[in-house]
Amino acid sequence: MILWLSGLGVSGGNERSTVFINDVAFEVAMGPFNVREAFGDDILLIHSSGQPVLTNEWGITLDSLQHGALYYLVPLSMSEHVSLILSILEIIFFCS
User: Fold this and answer.
1) What angle (nearest 5°) sits at the alpha carbon of residue 39, between those of residues 34 and 64?
2) What CATH number is given for 3-95 in this structure?
3) pLDDT reported for residue 74
């Protein structure tokens, strides 16, 4: 089963993309996606590469979510810890 999430999408377009968020398939509109509207104010969306999905001050992504990509939701109260952990992992992998 694929769940549908509303996003801003391309104006007038019906194009959809399937993404996986916390291992659940979601169908989202192509184009900017409103993370805040879909998941609330206190959530950070992180790509499986470890990079946060960049949003503007209204919670709208600067780029489209990538079709087939894996994303994870992290409560903002934990995001400082996640940033520290990601920094440590980057150092470990860079030094390897």
Assistant:
1) 30
2) 3.10.20.30
3) 85
